[in-house]
Amino acid sequence: MAYSYSKWKLHRTVDRSPPEQPYPGVSILKPLTGVDPNLFSNLETFFTLDYPMYELLFCVENEHDPAVMLVNSLIHKHPHIDARLFTGGLRVGVNPKINNMQPAYLAAKYPLVLISDAGIRMRDDSLLDMVQHMRDDVAIVHQMPFVCDAEGFAAVYEKVFFGTAQARMYLGADFMGINCHVGMSSLVRRCALEEAGGLRAFADYLAEDYFMAKDIVSRGWKMRVSSLPALQNSGTRSVGALQARLRRWARLRIAMIPTTAMLEPLSECMPLGAGAAWAAGQLFGAEPLPFFLVHVLVWFLSDWLMLRSVQNGSPPFTKVQFLLGWVWSECCAPFVLAAALLSPEISYKKKPKERNVRIAAMCEPYLQTRFRC
């Protein structure tokens, strides 16, 4: 289902012809913390967007952060782009990202707001594509997470995960109308966000993107995935860093939607194949091992097609590298979920101060997971 949907949904040709009515302006919020080797080139892609009217609002929590100098140099290099820098943030809750963005959000002047993480690299037509998906009844247009091409096993692992397991979940959920909103690159209609209380209304949630989408959609608005994926382009990649990130996401899912999270192993290749092989042996007398191997082979080939669809062509590595990355990704998935279950405390961005945070009203009383900011 996800593969068929991806062939229809992703990588459509962006219509660059002049519209009947002018496109609305977009305020782009860029929360930044620290500098990685690709940050300069990632940010510069926002200065070269093919869109008629937008502003760039950079948010840095600490005025001594090295990102300040980098942003100022880009503003000086592209004086024709409406860009401003906000430092210091404004504490409105426990979520450091919301606190960092709050002054820029209050100063934003356009009806559409794009929240874009520091590691995102934009194609010149990505914003235009997102705005074209913003119909009158749509309040959120978000990009499906994917990654830029890079070298090394960690890059293969990252691309395989986001191009197969993550893509299956994301596209399948969008097709069925399930909230799959990830806020790393998300265009929001400001009036709909203000109806929900603005950004500060979600400052007490660590998974602010999920609850923002849940609240806005509950008010009758719709949500769409754009046709161009979000290209994450971190300058430092490692297997451990990606697995730490996946564990953090798993802990959030367990806290927010525990009943669904408990069923996650049934969506993974190895546990599902083992269970299906046992069931086929019990019900039909089939040999479990050949059944399991055929199951894994079909899953592997399907994931190869899925990755090619998300990549819009051949991935930048060989089939042998894909096999190694795929086996590693699939074998690690159950252990990542188990680690999240055994250690439910969430560490967010390695902040030095630790606070126990309650996910709050929308999470229901049974959610007792402790959070560390």
TrEMBL record:
Domain of life assignment: Eukaryota
Q: Where in the cell is it found?
A: Golgi apparatus membrane
| Pfam families, per the entry | Glyco_transf_21 (PF13506)
| InterPro entries in UniProt | Ceramide_glucosylTrfase, Nucleotide-diphossugar_trans
| GO BP terms, alphabetized | glucosylceramide biosynthetic process
Name the SUPFAM superfamilies on file: Nucleotide-diphospho-sugar transferases
Q: In which pathway does it act?
A: Sphingolipid metabolism; Lipid metabolism; sphingolipid metabolism
- The enzyme's first-digit EC class, named in words, is transferase
- Please give the name of this protein: ceramide glucosyltransferase
Gene this chain is encoded by: HaOG213199
